[in-house]
Protein backbone atom coordinates (compact mmCIF):
# COMPACT_ATOMS: atom_id res chain seq x y z
CA UNK A 1 0.00 0.00 0.00
CA UNK A 2 1.41 3.37 -1.06
CA UNK A 3 2.06 5.69 1.88
CA UNK A 4 3.03 9.32 2.43
CA UNK A 5 4.88 10.90 5.33
CA UNK A 6 3.03 13.91 6.69
CA UNK A 7 3.96 15.73 9.89
CA UNK A 8 6.29 12.90 10.78
CA UNK A 9 3.62 10.23 10.40
CA UNK A 10 3.53 7.61 7.67
CA UNK A 11 -0.07 7.22 6.45
CA UNK A 12 -1.79 5.44 3.56
CA UNK A 13 -1.99 7.67 0.48
CA UNK A 14 -5.77 7.26 0.18
CA UNK A 15 -7.75 9.00 2.90
CA UNK A 16 -11.42 9.77 3.47
CA UNK A 17 -13.02 13.05 2.44
CA UNK A 18 -16.27 14.21 4.07
CA UNK A 19 -17.41 17.23 2.09
CA UNK A 20 -21.24 17.23 1.74
CA UNK A 21 -21.58 14.56 4.43
CA UNK A 22 -23.59 14.99 7.63
CA UNK A 23 -26.35 17.22 6.28
CA UNK A 24 -29.12 14.64 5.87
CA UNK A 25 -30.18 12.85 9.11
CA UNK A 26 -31.70 10.07 7.00
CA UNK A 27 -28.24 9.25 5.64
CA UNK A 28 -26.36 9.41 8.95
CA UNK A 29 -26.14 5.66 9.57
CA UNK A 30 -25.05 4.99 5.99
CA UNK A 31 -22.42 7.75 6.08
CA UNK A 32 -21.02 6.58 9.41
CA UNK A 33 -20.78 3.04 8.03
CA UNK A 34 -18.96 4.39 4.96
CA UNK A 35 -16.32 6.19 7.04
CA UNK A 36 -15.82 3.15 9.26
CA UNK A 37 -15.52 0.88 6.23
CA UNK A 38 -12.69 3.02 4.95
CA UNK A 39 -10.86 2.90 8.27
CA UNK A 40 -11.42 -0.85 8.56
CA UNK A 41 -9.92 -1.20 5.05
CA UNK A 42 -6.77 0.59 6.19
CA UNK A 43 -7.38 4.33 5.77
CA UNK A 44 -5.92 6.60 8.47
CA UNK A 45 -6.51 10.13 7.14
CA UNK A 46 -9.97 11.62 7.66
CA UNK A 47 -10.49 15.14 6.31
CA UNK A 48 -13.27 17.54 7.32
CA UNK A 49 -13.81 21.27 7.96
CA UNK A 50 -15.92 23.64 10.01
CA UNK A 51 -17.37 24.90 6.72
CA UNK A 52 -18.79 21.52 5.70
CA UNK A 53 -22.45 21.71 6.58
CA UNK A 54 -21.65 24.46 9.10
CA UNK A 55 -20.18 21.85 11.43
CA UNK A 56 -22.48 18.95 10.53
CA UNK A 57 -19.66 17.04 8.86
CA UNK A 58 -17.47 17.33 11.96
CA UNK A 59 -20.31 16.01 14.13
CA UNK A 60 -20.74 13.04 11.78
CA UNK A 61 -17.00 12.35 11.80
CA UNK A 62 -16.94 12.50 15.59
CA UNK A 63 -19.64 9.85 15.76
CA UNK A 64 -17.97 7.67 13.12
CA UNK A 65 -14.59 7.72 14.86
CA UNK A 66 -15.94 6.96 18.35
CA UNK A 67 -15.07 3.21 18.36
CA UNK A 68 -11.47 3.72 17.21
CA UNK A 69 -8.26 4.48 19.07
CA UNK A 70 -7.72 8.20 18.52
CA UNK A 71 -4.00 7.82 17.87
CA UNK A 72 -4.74 5.41 15.01
CA UNK A 73 -6.45 8.19 13.03
CA UNK A 74 -4.85 11.19 11.31
CA UNK A 75 -7.63 13.76 11.70
CA UNK A 76 -7.71 16.96 9.65
CA UNK A 77 -10.06 19.93 9.93
CA UNK A 78 -9.97 23.47 8.56
CA UNK A 79 -10.66 26.99 9.75
CA UNK A 80 -12.62 29.43 7.59
CA UNK A 81 -10.83 32.61 6.47
CA UNK A 82 -13.36 34.71 8.40
CA UNK A 83 -12.31 32.90 11.59
CA UNK A 84 -8.56 32.79 10.92
CA UNK A 85 -7.62 35.78 13.11
CA UNK A 86 -5.85 35.90 16.46
CA UNK A 87 -9.15 37.02 18.05
CA UNK A 88 -11.30 34.20 16.65
CA UNK A 89 -9.28 31.13 15.71
CA UNK A 90 -8.96 29.38 19.05
CA UNK A 91 -12.68 29.54 19.84
CA UNK A 92 -13.46 28.09 16.43
CA UNK A 93 -10.85 25.38 16.89
CA UNK A 94 -12.39 24.54 20.27
CA UNK A 95 -15.82 24.29 18.62
CA UNK A 96 -14.42 21.93 15.98
CA UNK A 97 -12.78 19.78 18.65
CA UNK A 98 -16.05 19.57 20.57
CA UNK A 99 -18.01 18.53 17.48
CA UNK A 100 -15.34 15.96 16.63
CA UNK A 101 -15.30 14.69 20.21
CA UNK A 102 -11.52 14.90 20.45
CA UNK A 103 -9.00 17.02 22.31
CA UNK A 104 -6.61 17.50 19.40
CA UNK A 105 -6.29 17.59 15.63
CA UNK A 106 -3.40 16.00 13.79
CA UNK A 107 -3.56 18.76 11.19
CA UNK A 108 -5.41 22.09 11.13
CA UNK A 109 -5.60 23.82 7.75
CA UNK A 110 -6.21 27.45 6.82
CA UNK A 111 -9.02 26.71 4.35
CA UNK A 112 -8.27 29.50 1.89
CA UNK A 113 -6.85 32.99 2.02
CA UNK A 114 -9.04 35.78 3.38
CA UNK A 115 -8.67 39.30 4.71
CA UNK A 116 -6.59 38.55 7.79
CA UNK A 117 -2.87 39.18 7.22
CA UNK A 118 -1.15 35.89 6.47
CA UNK A 119 1.42 36.49 9.19
CA UNK A 120 -1.31 36.86 11.83
CA UNK A 121 -3.03 33.63 10.77
CA UNK A 122 0.20 31.65 10.66
CA UNK A 123 1.43 32.98 14.00
CA UNK A 124 -1.86 31.95 15.60
CA UNK A 125 -1.69 28.49 14.03
CA UNK A 126 1.83 28.12 15.39
CA UNK A 127 0.69 29.27 18.85
CA UNK A 128 -2.15 26.75 18.83
CA UNK A 129 0.34 24.02 17.96
CA UNK A 130 2.26 24.90 21.09
CA UNK A 131 -0.93 24.41 23.17
CA UNK A 132 -1.23 20.81 21.98
CA UNK A 133 -4.71 21.34 20.54
CA UNK A 134 -3.23 20.77 17.09
CA UNK A 135 -0.24 18.59 16.32
CA UNK A 136 0.52 20.41 13.06
CA UNK A 137 -0.91 23.08 10.77
CA UNK A 138 -1.04 23.65 7.05
CA UNK A 139 -2.80 25.51 4.27
CA UNK A 140 -5.35 24.84 1.56
CA UNK A 141 -6.03 26.36 -1.86
CA UNK A 142 -2.56 27.93 -1.95
CA UNK A 143 -0.68 28.44 -5.22
CA UNK A 144 3.07 28.98 -5.67
CA UNK A 145 2.97 32.72 -4.95
CA UNK A 146 1.02 32.06 -1.74
CA UNK A 147 3.47 29.39 -0.63
CA UNK A 148 6.46 31.61 -1.37
CA UNK A 149 4.90 34.32 0.79
CA UNK A 150 4.26 31.72 3.48
CA UNK A 151 7.86 30.47 3.31
CA UNK A 152 9.15 34.00 3.87
CA UNK A 153 7.42 34.20 7.26
CA UNK A 154 9.51 33.34 10.34
CA UNK A 155 7.53 30.15 11.07
CA UNK A 156 6.10 29.60 7.58
CA UNK A 157 8.32 26.62 6.89
CA UNK A 158 6.53 24.74 9.70
CA UNK A 159 3.59 24.14 7.36
CA UNK A 160 2.89 20.40 7.14
CA UNK A 161 0.81 20.24 3.94
CA UNK A 162 -1.07 22.12 1.23
CA UNK A 163 -4.47 20.85 0.11
CA UNK A 164 -5.54 21.68 -3.46
CA UNK A 165 -7.92 20.43 -6.12
CA UNK A 166 -6.12 17.91 -8.31
CA UNK A 167 -7.12 15.15 -10.67
CA UNK A 168 -6.12 13.84 -14.09
CA UNK A 169 -8.50 16.22 -15.82
CA UNK A 170 -7.39 19.24 -13.77
CA UNK A 171 -3.59 19.12 -13.86
CA UNK A 172 -2.81 22.85 -13.73
CA UNK A 173 -0.80 22.58 -10.53
CA UNK A 174 1.72 20.35 -12.32
CA UNK A 175 3.04 23.38 -14.22
CA UNK A 176 4.92 24.66 -11.18
CA UNK A 177 3.18 23.91 -7.86
CA UNK A 178 3.85 20.19 -7.51
CA UNK A 179 7.54 20.69 -8.27
CA UNK A 180 7.72 23.54 -5.75
CA UNK A 181 6.14 21.40 -3.06
CA UNK A 182 8.42 18.44 -3.83
CA UNK A 183 11.47 20.71 -3.65
CA UNK A 184 10.34 22.07 -0.28
CA UNK A 185 9.23 18.66 1.03
CA UNK A 186 5.63 19.84 1.45
CA UNK A 187 3.09 17.03 0.92
CA UNK A 188 0.07 17.63 -1.31
CA UNK A 189 -3.43 16.65 -0.21
CA UNK A 190 -5.59 16.28 -3.33
CA UNK A 191 -9.28 17.03 -2.98
CA UNK A 192 -11.82 16.16 -5.69
CA UNK A 193 -9.34 13.54 -7.01
CA UNK A 194 -11.98 12.11 -9.34
CA UNK A 195 -13.77 15.41 -9.95
CA UNK A 196 -16.04 17.52 -7.82
CA UNK A 197 -19.51 16.60 -6.66
CA UNK A 198 -21.04 19.67 -8.22
CA UNK A 199 -18.96 20.33 -11.33
CA UNK A 200 -20.81 22.45 -13.87
CA UNK A 201 -18.89 20.72 -16.65
CA UNK A 202 -19.38 16.99 -16.96
CA UNK A 203 -16.20 15.05 -16.36
CA UNK A 204 -14.94 12.67 -19.03
CA UNK A 205 -12.55 10.83 -16.74
CA UNK A 206 -14.67 7.85 -15.77
CA UNK A 207 -15.89 7.20 -19.32
CA UNK A 208 -12.54 7.67 -21.05
CA UNK A 209 -11.69 4.59 -23.14
CA UNK A 210 -8.01 4.45 -22.15
CA UNK A 211 -8.85 4.91 -18.46
CA UNK A 212 -11.33 2.05 -18.71
CA UNK A 213 -8.90 -0.20 -20.59
CA UNK A 214 -6.13 0.29 -18.00
CA UNK A 215 -8.58 -0.16 -15.14
CA UNK A 216 -9.80 -3.41 -16.67
CA UNK A 217 -6.22 -4.61 -17.05
CA UNK A 218 -5.72 -4.08 -13.31
CA UNK A 219 -9.09 -5.60 -12.43
CA UNK A 220 -10.30 -2.38 -10.78
CA UNK A 221 -12.88 0.32 -11.43
CA UNK A 222 -12.09 3.45 -13.43
CA UNK A 223 -12.61 5.36 -10.19
CA UNK A 224 -9.89 3.37 -8.39
CA UNK A 225 -7.54 3.67 -11.35
CA UNK A 226 -7.85 7.46 -11.32
CA UNK A 227 -7.12 7.58 -7.60
CA UNK A 228 -4.00 5.49 -8.18
CA UNK A 229 -2.92 8.03 -10.79
CA UNK A 230 -3.32 10.96 -8.37
CA UNK A 231 -1.06 9.36 -5.72
CA UNK A 232 1.50 7.96 -8.18
CA UNK A 233 4.39 10.21 -7.03
CA UNK A 234 4.47 9.03 -3.41
CA UNK A 235 4.11 12.60 -2.15
CA UNK A 236 0.34 13.02 -2.53
CA UNK A 237 -2.60 11.99 -0.35
CA UNK A 238 -5.98 11.77 -2.08
CA UNK A 239 -9.16 12.27 -0.07
CA UNK A 240 -12.09 10.98 -2.17
CA UNK A 241 -15.56 11.26 -0.67
CA UNK A 242 -18.28 8.62 -0.82
CA UNK A 243 -21.30 7.74 1.28
CA UNK A 244 -21.23 4.08 0.23
CA UNK A 245 -19.22 1.62 2.33
CA UNK A 246 -18.14 -0.61 -0.58
CA UNK A 247 -17.10 2.41 -2.63
CA UNK A 248 -14.96 3.75 0.21
CA UNK A 249 -13.36 0.32 0.68
CA UNK A 250 -12.51 0.20 -3.03
CA UNK A 251 -11.07 3.71 -2.81
CA UNK A 252 -8.64 2.68 -0.07
CA UNK A 253 -7.51 -0.34 -2.08
CA UNK A 254 -6.46 2.02 -4.88
CA UNK A 255 -3.28 2.62 -2.87
CA UNK A 256 -2.19 -0.90 -3.89
CA UNK A 257 -2.31 -0.18 -7.65
CA UNK A 258 1.03 0.38 -9.42
CA UNK A 259 0.87 2.01 -12.84
CA UNK A 260 3.55 1.23 -15.44
CA UNK A 261 5.46 3.90 -17.36
CA UNK A 262 3.60 2.86 -20.51
CA UNK A 263 0.24 3.22 -18.77
CA UNK A 264 1.21 6.66 -17.48
CA UNK A 265 2.26 7.72 -20.99
CA UNK A 266 -1.08 6.57 -22.40
CA UNK A 267 -2.93 8.54 -19.75
CA UNK A 268 -0.77 11.62 -20.40
CA UNK A 269 -1.76 11.45 -24.05
CA UNK A 270 -5.45 11.51 -23.08
CA UNK A 271 -4.99 14.23 -20.45
CA UNK A 272 -1.80 16.18 -21.27
CA UNK A 273 0.35 17.91 -18.71
CA UNK A 274 -0.07 21.72 -18.67
CA UNK A 275 2.30 23.74 -20.84
CA UNK A 276 1.44 27.12 -19.30
CA UNK A 277 0.41 28.64 -15.99
CA UNK A 278 -3.32 28.45 -15.25
CA UNK A 279 -5.32 29.85 -12.31
CA UNK A 280 -5.57 27.53 -9.33
CA UNK A 281 -8.69 25.37 -9.64
CA UNK A 282 -11.06 25.63 -6.70
CA UNK A 283 -14.25 23.62 -6.27
UniProtKB/TrEMBL annotation:
Residues 13-269 form the NADP-dependent oxidoreductase domain. Gene3D superfamilies: NADP-dependent oxidoreductase domain. It comes from the Bacteria. This is Aldo keto reductase family oxidoreductase. It comes from Ligilactobacillus acidipiscis DSM 15836. The lineage of its organism: Bacteria, Bacillati, Bacillota, Bacilli, Lactobacillales.
